[in-house]
Every structure is written in structure tokens, then in C-alpha cells.
Amino acid sequence: MYKSTDSTDQLIMADGSPADTVSNFGSKISIIQRTKQDPSTKHVTFRLVLTIIGATMGSLQFGYNLGVINSPESLIKDFINATNYERTGSDLQGAALTNLWALTVAIYSLGGCVGGFSAGWWATKFGRKGGCLVNIIIGVIAGILMFASKSAKSYEMIIIGRLLIGVHCGLYSGLVPLYLSEMSTPRIRGAVGVLHQLALVTGMLISQILGFPVILGTSSGWSVLLGEMPPVLHHYLKYSVCLGDSITTC
């Protein structure tokens, strides 16, 4: 039923209650038509696929650094003990070595807490894509410290590197899901959302495989395993080439 009033045209429902105004009804139809005609809601573009791959590299880093410390445990303990012996002329006692190793492992979680709590501010300050790119600098510094620790004969560099890589990965734990949710179309948003967790466990798997004694789990390869220099550089290239701007850029 249609009813004309002095102020506006209205549609009257069968029960007598007013429906949306004609203008509002027309606006809704126009929005629906634009949505149906918008190809971005129907098709997954090649650029979008590259962007998703680039973003999930951050989650891969998270998982990699979470599991990489387990395989070379005995090798790093030997390095810590040998370094201390060169400095002081005595070996570390069991409790001291255990506590130092526990600090090396646990400080990653401390850095992760700092990065996780800062992710919201970081995304607002630098933007989604910019925040990911700036965060790479922290990861590269951490990788260099851990990679060079053996040559410098400094286990303190491993501890500082683990702290920084924790901050690096903690930031990604907030930035990557946020970036993926904004970049994906509504049709694939649910599928894209699980890629963060998938990339995380994939990174853990890669770290365990590379940690085998026949690969990098050796006295000469553990610093490369921790420093993850190839993944860091590859990660930087992925973000530089693949990432597009998200809907919210600041």
C-alpha cells in the first residue's frame, strides 16, 4: 500500500506499520546493485593472492622463531660454557648454565608480550602495510645479532637478539590478522583468516626440519639457524613486492 504525506512518501505494510521511505528503499537497492556489480567481491585477483602470501610471511616468522631454539639446545649450551671458560677460566656450574639457558628461551616470550601489547598503537602509527615493513627492521637487527654471536663469542648477543625477535613476532601477532581481514574480500575472509595459524605452525615445522643435524643443527650451522638470515631477507622482499595498501592506511 502506498500513502502520500506532506513530508515524505511512505510504503505502508499490510499491518499498517510504515515501511522504509521510498528514498531509503531506493538507496538500499542501489547499494545492493553496486555490490553485485563490484568485481572485487566476486573474484580473487592475482594481486590479492600475492598480498596474502606476503602478509602470512610474518606469521611464518612467528612460528619459526618459536620453535627454532629447541633443536640446537645442547650446541648453544656448549657455546655458552666455552665462551664463559675463555673469559673466566672456569666452566659454568649446572644451575648457572640452566638458568642462563632458561633466560635465553624465556626472554622471547617477554619480547612477544611487549610486541603484542604495542601492535594496536604500531598499526595506528605506521599503518597496516607500513607497520609490517618497519617491523622488518627489528627482525633484521635481531637476526644479525644472533647470527654474529658465534663469531663475536658473545652469548649476550643471542639473548638480546631473542628479545628483539620476540618483539618482532609479537607485533606480527597483531598486525597480520588485522591486515588480512582488511585486505580480503567478504567472500574469502573466513578462509584467509585461518592462514595466520596455518603459517605459524608451518614456520614451526620448517624450524624443526632445518634443525636436523644433517642440515643446520651442527656446531657450524646453529648460528645460521638462529639468525635466519635467508628467511629475513626473503621476508623483506615479499613485503616490498607483494603487499598492497589496506583499507585503513593509518
Automatic annotation (TrEMBL):
One of its GO terms (molecular function) is hexose transmembrane transporter activity. It is found in: Membrane. SUPFAM superfamilies: MFS general substrate transporter. Keywords: Membrane, Sugar transport, Transmembrane, Transmembrane helix, Transport. The chain crosses the membrane at residues 44-64, 100-123, 130-148, 160-180, 192-216. GO terms for cellular component: membrane. Pfam families: Sugar_tr. The keyword Transmembrane applies. InterPro entries: GLUT (IPR045263), MFS_dom (IPR020846), MFS_sugar_transport-like (IPR005828), MFS_trans_sf (IPR036259), Sugar/inositol_transpt (IPR003663), Sugar_transporter_CS (IPR005829). It is a multi-pass membrane protein. Residues 51-250 form the Major facilitator superfamily (MFS) profile domain. PANTHER family: FACILITATED GLUCOSE TRANSPORTER PROTEIN 1, SOLUTE CARRIER FAMILY 2. This is Solute carrier family 2 facilitated glucose transporter member 1 protein. It comes from Plakobranchus ocellatus.
